[in-house]
């Protein structure tokens, strides 16, 4: 009897070891496969995009965020398995091996799905003109800023003024959604883009955990498991259009934050809706000022001090609104997200400087074409 028990324990231990080895093998295999451009492109265009399109059709048939139910379920399963593992340490070796085996199966499954759904996206090339190292000339960066500021002032003056210190937009998110659906097809004319998909069913979801997201500094997020673009329902009017376009950028296959920001900028600047324009230009002018500060802090101080009154008022209102949500939770999440992005070969959340580089490249490309 004891011999049979020992044999069973050994079999379970062997299964656990094999499952762990499979997990390590997955990491190595995906690292190799995704580094080969042709294989990566094939997986993205022939596997990931078609599956995402199918999942989008399913999840869009529901008006609530299916992905948040999925995350909650995954969290509960993972938490339950970890608790069982901790408890098993006070029991027999058989219980430890048994629980660890199922925990590893769970981790293996989630990792496998994630890598095909989203991990592969970080390795593909999307923006062809961004291959080489960019040398930014401060003088040209200021020219771009001045152009962007002029556009921002122009569209800001088109937006109906109200007595409130917080800017209010007349359009709603559904109108921004329809505008994006039309604008996305303008990407057809660009030769420096590849490995992305058009959204046949552009559809946003308002997150159930929006209040929590405010405290974590989240304006929106893309769920790769359910292919959903989720928005924080408590975003200010000024933030919502740019955030919607950004999350749709992720849904189209622009994985990095900088690329999704750039796509939002490119399409938003083409819109005929001044509210979308202003949301985009507002973000770009302050991002550009942040980049200019490195070479000329005095210029930035003077611009902030002498900013257009309406834009200055909008910035003050934005800072006051989000300031009440700042704290340890926001700082902790920001650092965790920063480390996640860096692990996927991105520049992190501390500075989306790549976004400025892409605006710079677009400006230079337009100049060369002219």
From TrEMBL:
The chain crosses the membrane at residues 16-36, 69-86, 98-121. Keywords: Membrane, Transmembrane, Transmembrane helix. It comes from the Bacteria. It holds the Pfam family DUF3810. InterPro entries: DUF3810. This is DUF3810 domain-containing protein. It comes from Empedobacter tilapiae.
